Amino acid sequence: MRASRLEWAAQDFILERMTLPDDISDRARELHRRALVVDAHADTLTEMTDRGYDLDAAPSNGHIDFTLAGDGALDVQVFTCFVRPTYLPDRCADRVRAMLDTLERQLALFPERIALCRSGAALDEPRAAGKLGAVLAIEGGHAIENDLAVLAEFGRRGVRTMTLTWNNTNDWADGCGDEARHGGLTDFGRDVVSAMEDWGMVVDVSHAARSTFDDVLAVARKPLIASHSCADALRPHVRNLTDDQLRAIAATGGVACVNFYPRFLVDSDDATLHDVLDHVEHFLSITGPRHVGLGGDFDGIPHGPRGLENAAALPRLTEGLLARGIPDDDIVALLGANLARVFDGAEPAARDNLGAEAAAH
Ligand SMILES: [Zn+2]
User: Fold this and answer.
1) Ligand 1 center–CA 261 separation, angstroms
2) 248-283, pLDDT tens digit by residue?
């Protein structure tokens, strides 16, 4: 499955040329470099696991690797272990384990270039050492196979956030694109939310049905994130967030992160950077600047919007925000400081309990 090194070398050359957009002002580039840039959702681990490549050289249509993230374009990536429902019922956890192995392989191969932001470590630590920060996530609560001990195992391996569902309804939570079987969360679903919060994991409501979202609000005691969703007011879609949902996330102290998937931005495949800026501005208008973030869905979408094709293009977003008159401090907040605040604040008082409680279930 692995491509030859020669093939990678040729792709390196292409990536090198793509990496530094030259149409960015010094002011935007400086601000972008200064900001801690955190992206809340990418499916790169799926691509790497299935296609067999490493972060030193993504294929030419890849959206994230060390080169593309370089020069301060992207400082911390939440690497998501997405479990397609085809792995149900009993191969979901193994699928996550395979993707965790993929990330651990990167840590072993490139100790000078990537560091895992484990619980207890601030998100800006890898950047200070010149490394890409990696935060581990799970997409689709069915991944834990209805077992809190499995959730605890993933937590011990570094997973710090999870979407309760993917589009599918699982045994304990309704998903946004499927039959409503529970009217939101079941009792076990509420236990999952509580366990995540007890163990320092951030609860992610992207992909949740609106009934699930409401049930999470009733249970959650800590800030929530929506890692990769757009504004329903601009593009009505079951995957997008209504203004009420945006306000509710902000009220928890959490962060809603704008997705770059063209179909969530506009009613076609033909979105541009300006559409992303429209959604960011809408989020800002509803929640204020402390509750907005980015979750581009890179490597999980066929292509990004024009002007925002991969991680290397992220400074263009900063340029666009400046052009729209967004204050520097607000740009720094939404580029990543807001997400860093939520992850750092999710830390439990005592981490030693992780798994001890699960063993009791
Ligand atoms: Zn998703």
Assistant:
1) 10
2) 999 999 999 999 999 999 999 999 999 999 999 999
Q: What angle do CA 55, 60, 64 make, to 5 degrees?
A: 40
Single-letter code of the amino acid located at 356: A
Q: Report yes or no: 279 and 245 within 8 Å, Cβ to Cβ.
A: no
User: Domain holding 301: CATH number?
Assistant: 3.20.20.140
Give the domain extent around 223.
25-359
Residue 17 placed within a domain? no
Mean pLDDT to the nearest integer, 70-94: 97
CA of 301 to the centre of ligand 1 (A): 9
- pLDDT on residue 120: 75
> How far away, in angstroms, is 101 Cα from ligand 1 center?
21
Instruction: Tell me, yes or no, whether 14 lies in a domain.
Output: no
Query: What is the whole-number distance in angstroms between the Cα of residue 242 and the centre of ligand 1?
Result: 17
d(CA 350, CA 33): 34
Residue 228 Cα to ligand 1 midpoint, Å, equals: 7
Give the position of tokens 């049930």.
215
Output the CA 138–ligand 1 centroid distance in Å.
10
pLDDT value for 15: 43
Q: Which residues contact 258 (CB under 8 A, 6 or more apart)?
A: 229, 230, 231, 276, 279, 280, 283, 292, 293, 294, 295
Contact between 171 and 139 under an 8 Å Cβ cutoff? The reply is: no
Q: Does residue 9 carry a pLDDT above 70?
A: no
Q: Please give the distance, rounded to the nearest whole angstrom, from the Cα atom of residue 79 to the centre of ligand 1.
A: 12
Q: What separation in Å is there between the alpha carbon of 169 and the centre of ligand 1? A: 14
Closest to 216 in 3D by CA, of 251, 178, 168, 243: 251
Q: Does the residue 169 lie in any domain?
A: yes
CA of residue 166 to ligand 1 center, whole Å: 7
Instruction: Evaluate whether 298 touches 260 at the Cβ level (below 8 Å).
Output: yes
Q: Which two tokens stand for residue 101?
A: 């192995």
